[in-house]
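Recap for those who missed Tuesday's class. We walked through two folding examples back to back. For each one, the amino acid string is listed first and its predicted structure tokens come directly after. Nothing is annotated here on purpose, so try labeling regions yourself before you check the end of the notes.
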Amino acid sequence: MIRTKGINHIALVCRDMAETTQFYTQVLQMPLFKTVQLPDGGQHFFFDAGGGNAVAFFWWEDAPPAAPGIASVKKFPFDAKTAVGSMNHLAFDMEEAELEAALERLEEAGVPHTHMVFNHDDSPSGYAREMHEGVFVRSVYFTDPNGIMLEFAATTRSFGPEDVRHAPATLAEDA
């Protein structure tokens, strides 16, 4: 049996390593703990996201350009679909009490972000304006300099069997 201990790191691609390093170390205050110069001229840098987790970035001078709406979100929450095999967003775990301070930090740094904390629940819209006992996670969404959608997420309750109540969807067969 394969037994993992969690996610070691996620590796993304950035357009400018200096700009990305400044954002992750200064704005998000994630220490840079490892840098690699790649034999093809590229770079691979690792940032400490806390709890033994890391976010890593590759940079190549000749990397293909960003492809919003294909490989990344165009604009959350209204145009958040991305292509099969793409990454939609990266969520950093955070204590609920830290969310308001995180919003203030993003505002101070001029980072584009949702100007409210989203209270995710099981309502038809998927979120509520006010906190209530059905809210299972509270989130703040923002983008990094590469257009990657990020999230600060605070889980507000434990999950149980009643939280798994939808059958997995599949593509319809051709008629």
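Example two. Treat it independently of the first, because the proteins are unrelated.
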Amino acid sequence: MTDDMFIESRPSIVFLGDSLTEDGRWAEWFPDRETQNLGVGGNTTDDVVARLDDVVALQPEVVVLLVGTNDLSTRKSVEHVVRNIEYVLVTLRRALPGARMLLQSIMPRGREFAARIQDANRHLRQFAPSVNVQYLDLWPTLALEDGELDPALSDDRLHLNDAGYERWLGELRPGLERLDDAPPMSRPITIIRNQG
């Protein structure tokens, strides 16, 4: 393999999540990468757990995950959301030991959800390093001081408009560059859980 071939070879990326991911124009925004959009509108963390075999079958080099907001609108507990996302990360790490993974914080929406979203994000930020997953905090760039999704970025306090996607990409692009620079994974991570 020549140096030129190595430079041009970019990881295949799976974008996994709900409608926020589904509505992304990933192939257009990352034309130098092979992308797969596995965002499904309305998906909860339970739905993503049920689709993990589809992710593994693609054998991606990079997985970018964003999910959780739909759970909170269906009155699932913060604990449920966090436990499911942790399960997703552990399962993917075991099945794709060489993959780089980027977990994005649950995005802000209406301010009435802010405390629960921030609680879930605190747990996820702490957990991600234990399975060698990088964490991307989108809250500072998308939320107002009271936790409301910046109304300039959304027409319905949940889904992003074009300005919202541009703001997201402003964080995601450098996040993926940092992920590319990270050392590759080479072996599964064993998670030790306390029994009892």
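Answers for example two:
Residues 1-10 have pLDDT under 50 and may be disordered.
The radius of gyration is 16 Å.
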